[in-house]
């Protein structure tokens, strides 16, 4: 029944997909500063055309009424409308005739108190000589009023001893993975700062590093922010042993990887130490479009993104896949744990309280993302199902605000 629902949602969104924008379209809409509640007067608005790269087709500013109008002159083209506010870009992809547009921007601050993450994961692989570690986090910015944390140290990483960086990527709620600027923190070996804006909502950060591996190895990971749910994932051929009893619990396997979940929830500061031994690699995943280097100029960043786009024949599915609302990490295994560890119902007096619809939708999105990461779902099915679920989630959230 579950899979039937998924395919039904996928079929619904495929049948209702919009046509690309046509020649002679004028893109107009409003831009509101959601921090102040006022029109974002004076912000730059850029119309970027997708195709063989991403080209700037028109540019303007938000007027005194908070509106803009930009001419789109290319037949059968698809566009991104990008608004730049205080150095941070806020984009909206136009897949059809989504006009008029409504774009929100937020004021930027150097730091926000109380940031935390909903999900964190460390995936381990080893070949007998090198240990590869992939850490992924979903950081939630629920600031009130909503603001964007933007600065050279928005996200900090502390590597284990002898570890060497491979790369770090980040992704906003509506965007694609981009290589984020990384800089060592002076006087603190193994400590790095990532310059990537944490917009309201969820921001996903993923980084990979490696270290020498010749036998049993102890790891003591450090968390950038408090994390509600954290787990270590590894191939079954790699043995996992917690340094202290009852700090991790094994919750089985998912998609060929064993899940070791931290017992303490939430987890802040240090991840409980553990030891691993043996060799093993994660099951192969289907190839995904490469990340691109982030740049301080949002328009340049958008053009760089387009250089990694596929051929024109598949670009519509590509952008649907990458630019749909996505606020969750590739950690469906943790959803499995979440469902298993959390009671299906919570009692309040004599009444049973069923977990809200929003939680169920988000859990389904978690699982869908892990299916894509492991290659157990086709790109077409993923894109269609993801958009259907995202639209359902948006509608549920809208109703919850009434």
* Category by helix and strand content: alpha+beta
- What's the tally of helices? 6
**Under the CATH scheme, which class of the largest domain?**
Mainly Beta
Radius of gyration: 22 Å
CATH topology of the largest domain: Immunoglobulin-like
Give the CA-CA distance, first to last residue. 31 Å
Tell me the strand percentage band: 35-45%
The total count of strands amounts to 27
| Strand order, largest beta sheet | 22-23-20-10-11-18-14-15-25
Supply database-style keywords.
402 residues, disordered N terminus, 6 helices, Immunoglobulin-like, alpha+beta, 9-stranded mixed beta sheet, single chain, 2 domains, elongated
How would you describe this protein?
Residues about 1-25 and about 285-355 have low confidence and may be disordered. The longest helix has 22 residues, at about 380-400. The chain has 2 domains: about 1-105, Immunoglobulin-like, CATH 2.60.40; about 110-320 and about 325-375, Immunoglobulin-like (Sandwich). It has 6 helices and 27 strands. A 9-stranded mixed β-sheet has the order 22-23-20-10-11-18-14-15-25, sandwiched between helices. About 35% of the residues are buried. It is an alpha+beta fold and about 400 residues long. Helix 1 (about 1-15) packs across helix 6, helix 4 crosses helix 5 and helix 5 (about 355-375) runs antiparallel to helix 6 (about 380-400).
């Amino acid at each position: 029944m579950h899979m039937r629902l998924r395919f039904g949602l996928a079929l619904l969104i495929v049948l209702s997909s919009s046509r690309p924008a046509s020649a002679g379209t004028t893109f107009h809409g409003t831009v509101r500063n959601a921090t102040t509640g006022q029109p974002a007067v004076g912000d730059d608005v850029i119309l970027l055309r997708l195709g063989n790269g991403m080209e700037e087709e028109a540019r303007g500013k938000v007027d005194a009424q908070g509106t803009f109008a930009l001419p789109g002159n290319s037949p059968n083209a698809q566009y991104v409308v990008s608004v730049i506010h205080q150095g941070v870009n806020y984009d909206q992809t136009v897949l059809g005739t989504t006009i008029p547009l409504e774009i929100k921007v937020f004021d930027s601050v150097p730091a926000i108190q109380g940031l935390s993450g909903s999900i964190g994961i460390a995936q381990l692989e080893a070949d007998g000589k090198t240990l590869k570690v992939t850490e992924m986090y979903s950081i939630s910015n629920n600031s009130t009023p909503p603001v964007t944390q933007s600065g050279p140290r928005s996200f900090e990483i502390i590597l284990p001893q002898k570890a060497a960086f491979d790369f770090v990527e980040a992704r906003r709620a509506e965007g694609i993975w981009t290589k984020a600027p990384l800089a060592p923190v002076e006087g603190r070996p193994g400590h790095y700062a990532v310059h990537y804006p944490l917009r309201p909502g969820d921001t996903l950060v993923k980084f990979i590093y490696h270290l020498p591996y010749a036998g049993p190895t102890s790891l003591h990971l450090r968390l950038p922010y408090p994390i509600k749910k954290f787990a270590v994932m590894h191939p079954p051929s790699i043995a996992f042993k917690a340094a202290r009893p009852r700090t991790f619990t094994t919750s089985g396997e998912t998609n060929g990887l064993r899940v070791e979940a931290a017992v303490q929830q939430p987890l802040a500061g240090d991840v409980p130490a553990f030891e691993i031994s043996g060799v093993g690699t994660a099951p192969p995943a289907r190839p995904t479009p490469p990340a691109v280097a982030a740049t301080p100029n949002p328009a340049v960043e958008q053009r760089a993104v387009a250089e990694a786009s596929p051929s024109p024949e598949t670009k519509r599915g590509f952008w649907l896949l990458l630019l749909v609302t996505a606020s969750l990490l590739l950690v469906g295994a943790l959803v499995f744990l979440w469902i298993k560890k959390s009671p299906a119902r919570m009692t309040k007096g004599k009444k049973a309280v069923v977990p809200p619809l929003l939680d169920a939708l988000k859990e389904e999105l978690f699982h869908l993302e892990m299916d894509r990461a492991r290659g157990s779902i086709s790109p077409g099915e993923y894109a269609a199902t993801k958009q259907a679920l995202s639209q359902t989630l948006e509608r549920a959230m809208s109703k919850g605000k009434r």
